[in-house]
Automatic annotation (TrEMBL):
This is NADH-quinone oxidoreductase subunit C. The gene is nuoC. Keywords: Cell membrane, Membrane, NAD, Quinone, Translocase, Transport. GO terms for cellular component: plasma membrane. It comes from Planifilum fulgidum. GO terms for molecular function: NADH dehydrogenase (quinone) (non-electrogenic) activity; NADH dehydrogenase (ubiquinone) activity; quinone binding. Pfam families: Complex1_30kDa (PF00329). It comes from the Bacteria.
Length: 254
């Protein structure tokens, strides 16, 4: 009785370690399966990293010069645009609304100062359709008095005076306005470049005083009749006139 009982107990005791051993083996096998599952994503990540490295190492092909830019216009298109511009320039322009006013100015001046007093007249369209006349140099004093004193003209306000060097000749340009009649006029007086001279009008419009001095200083145009024609910007001992096209400074470093 005792032996059988002991054998049963010993048999029972001998089976327990084997069960624990199987459970341990299964437990050890389980992490291995999990490790296989985890290893797969890690392998994919490494492959992606390798692919990105290869892509970064691959040299970038240079874009051909001019690629992506707007192609130049074809000669035919350029020719068509040029022809359109010429056609537009050749088309007759509509009469200026200031043309009747300019005609009235010219008529009044030529009646009083002679037909030869006005060399040319036109409408300066870019400058607000400004009536413009070119007065002969020898007639400028007579025309100036007429512009100021004639009741139909009455240009009592001298807006400004400027000088221009056109290389083959020079001009003095006057802008007038009539405060009473509310009309404007531009007068241009030409002179040669060798001995440029335009009669002064400071006694007719006192505002011309400093303007004439400035033009004399920078362009060298003389204004006979000016009460104090001397430099106004440059020193009195300055050589030459800085705004002339042929001006060369005495000291190139200045």
């Amino acid at each position: 009785m005792t032996d059988s009982k002991d054998r049963k107990e010993s048999g029972g005791a001998s089976e327990q370690p084997s069960e624990r051993k199987q459970g341990a083996e299964q437990a050890e096998a389980a992490p291995e399966k999990g490790a296989e599952k985890e290893a797969a994503p890690k392998g994919e990540a490494s492959e992606k990293r390798e692919a990105s490295k290869e892509k970064a190492a691959k040299p970038v092909e240079a874009r051909p010069k001019g690629e992506g830019k707007k192609p130049p216009a074809r000669p035919a298109a350029r020719g068509a645009r040029a022809a359109a511009r010429r056609k537009k320039a050749e088309e007759p322009q509509e009469p200026s609304p200031k043309q009747p006013l300019l005609d009235a100015f010219v008529k009044r001046i030529t009646e009083q100062a002679g037909k030869e007093a006005v060399e040319e007249s036109y409408i300066n369209r870019p400058n607000g359709h400004l009536p413009t006349i070119v007065v002969r140099n020898e007639k400028w004093r007579d025309v100036a008095r007429l512009l100021r004193e004639d009741e139909t003209l009455a240009f009592d306000y001298l807006v400004n005076v400027t000088g221009v060097d056109y290389e083959d000749h020079m001009e003095v340009v006057y802008h007038f306005e009539s405060l009473g009649h509310k009309h404007r006029l531009c007068v241009r007086v030409k002179t040669d470049r060798e001995n440029p001279s335009v009669p002064s009008v400071t006694d007719i419009w006192s505002g011309a005083n400093w303007d004439e001095r400035e033009i004399y200083d920078l362009l060298g145009i003389q204004f006979p009749g000016h009460p104090n024609l001397k430099r106004i910007l440059m020193p009195e001992n300055w050589v030459g006139h800085p705004l002339r096209k042929d001006y060369e400074p005495a000291d190139p470093d200045i």
